[in-house]
Amino acid sequence: MAKTIVVAGKGGTGKTTVAALIVKHLKEHADGSILALDADPDANLATVLGIPVDKTIGDLREETLRAMKDFPPGMSKANYIEAGLHQIVVETEKVDLITMGRGEGPSCYCYINNLLRKFADYLMASYDWMVMDTEAGLEHLSRRTASRIDNLIVVVNESPLAMDCARRIDELIPTIKNPVKRKFLVLNNVREERIETVKQKAAGLDLEYLGCIPFDSALEQLVFEGESIYKLDGSPATLTIDEMMQTIGVE
Ligand SMILES: Nc1ncnc2c1ncn2[C@@H]1O[C@H](COP(=O)(O)OP(=O)(O)O)[C@@H](O)[C@H]1O
Ligand SMILES: [Mg+2]
Question: What is the Cα–Cα distance from 50 to 229, expressed in whole angstroms?
Fold first, then answer.
């Protein structure tokens, strides 16, 4: 079963950046295979990693619904989806990527959604690591996309709205079915002189403080140029992620 790292937090705080930096760290330092799962409908993990994606799970769901009407005898939805899923998983060296795409629709999608979820559970068993970038509201978590969470990382920046979101996530955790082993708070892009204040605001939350990723101009430049985050080396963000991964027990 894959060790799972789920990155959550308000949009704009740096969730995708943190998820991508963790994937990069694992790719370079950890043994075994990695699944990067983009569960944010506003998907951009693939772009930040520099991995081209043709099709999302959302596309496959829509395509199955359209194709169902003309299925030949003997063709089931399960067969169709299974065949389509091979196009969803983008394989690269050590890292495979799946993009969920648009969120789940009305209840008539239920059967297909259940199939997709079963597939996700089955997939997780075949990787050593799973890193998931989530949407701010954590709908995927409450619908149990990731069955077990070893490490939940909640990202906040200086914005009080980001802290509000972290608080909501903290309150949501005990209500979801997924067991969550460890929960961390990561500060991103918080100015040195504000770190203590932000930490104090988070003091009441049931999250272990993992550290602060500083503003990284090399990272900012790479993203601006549309280059893969894999190209970032020895800069403040990667060094901080390396330390954080050691703290949570990932080489
Ligand atoms: N530590 C950092 N240094 C420089 N730029 C950053 C840093 N963290 C995030 N960014 C930039 O801020 C923007 C928002 O980050 P992103 O990871 O997309 O947030 P989210 O996924 O939470 O919406 C992106 O353009 C990203 O490149
Ligand atoms: Mg994002």
Answer: 7
Count of domains observed in the chain:
1
| Pairing of the two strands 95-99 and 90-91 | antiparallel
d(CA 209, CA 204): 12
- CB of 21 within 6 A of ligand 1: the answer is no
Quick check: CB of 58 below 6 Å from ligand 1? no
CA distance linking residue 29 with residue 221, whole number of Å: 24
Domain of residue 179 covers 3-247
The answer to whether the CB of 141 falls within 8 A of the CB of 176 is yes
Distance, CA of 171 to chain centre: 20
Of 247, 192, 248, 240, the residue nearest 21 (C-alpha) = 240
Domain CATH for 86: 3.40.50.300
Q: What angle do CA 243, 245, 251 make, to 5 degrees?
A: 100
> Are 129 and 34 spatial neighbours (Cβ–Cβ below 8 Å)?
yes
In what helix (H) or strand (E) does residue 24 lie, and over which residues does it extend?
A: helix 15-29
Q: Is 14 in the pocket of ligand 1 (CB under 6 A)?
A: yes
**Alpha carbon distances (Å) from 161 to 12, 23, 41, 137, 168:** 11, 27, 20, 13, 11
Q: pLDDT, tens digit, for every residue of 207-248?
A: 999 999 999 999 999 999 999 999 999 999 999 999 999 999
Greater pLDDT, 115 or 4: 4
Q: Which ligand does the CA of 216 lie closest to?
A: 1
- Expressed in angstroms and rounded, the spacing between residue 203 Cα and the centre of ligand 2 is 25
32-46, 66-80, 98-112 — most confident range: 32-46
